[in-house]
Amino acid sequence: MSPNTTRRALSSVNLAQRIEKGFIYLILLSGGLLILVPLWWMISTSLKRPAEVFTFPPTFLPETLRWQNYVDIFEKAPFGRYFLNTTYVVFMDMIGTLLSASMVGFAFARLRWRGRDAFFVLTLATMMLPGAVTLIPRYLIFKELHWLDTFLPLWVPSFFGYPFFIFLMRQFYATIPYELDDAARIDGCSDFGVWWRINLPLTLPALAACGIFTFNATWNDFLGPLIYLSSQNKLTLALGLMAFRGPHVTDFHYLMAASTIAMLPVVVLFFFAQKYFIQGIVFTGVKG
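Above: the chain sequence. Below: its structure as C-alpha cells.
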C-alpha cells in the first residue's frame, strides 16, 4: 500500500471517529437541555408576576424580573425557621452517618474478630428490608421514648449506622494496603489510633460520597418529618413547602420561588463536591 493510500485511509478513519464523537456529543447535549427545561421553567416562573404565570402561549422569560417574590415567601411563611430546622437535622444526621459508617466499616474491613463475616452478611441483609416494614415498629419505639414531635427520631438512628454507607466504607477500607496498619501498630498505635491517624484521612473521597448522599436524602426527606413532627415551628423545609402549598395552591410564582430556594443548597453542594463524589463512587467498587 502506497503512503498516499495509507494517509487517505487514516484520514477517513479520523473523520469517521470525529463524526461519531460529534453525534454522541449532540445526543448528550440534547438530553441535557431536555432535562434542564423543567429547571428553567421553575426559575423563570419564580420571577414572574401572578398574571404572567397563566398567559397563553406561555413565555419562557419573564417580562420583568420580580425578585420581590423571594422576599414575599419569607413574609407569608416562616421559611427561615424551616431552613434552620432542616439544617440542624442534616448536620446531626451527617455527623452520625459519617461517624458510624466509618467506624463500623473499619471494623469489618481492617479488624479480625470472630463472627465478622457473618455480621457483615447480616448487615447487608438488612438492606433488603423495605422501609415500610420497619416504619410502624420504629414509630412505636419512638412513641414509648416520648420522642414524638422532636427532631430526635430524624437523626439519632444515624449514630447506629446505615447498612448502605457501612458497605461503602468497608469497600473503600479494603483498598488500603494492610502494611500501613502493621507499621502503625509497630509504632505503638492502638486500633483506634490506626483508624483515626492512618485510615480515616485516606477515606475522604468515600466520606464525601456518603456525606453528599446523606445531605441530599435528609434535606429532601418528607416522610420522616411528616410522621414524627406536628408543631408548626418544628417543620422541616420539605414539610414546610407542603404546608405552604395548601393556602397558596394557585400562587405558582411563590411556590416556584420557595422550591428554588429549597433546591439551591443541594445544587451548590454537588457543584463544589462533585469531584469527591465521583472519586468515592469509583474507588468504592475497586475491591470487593
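Residues 3-46 form one domain.
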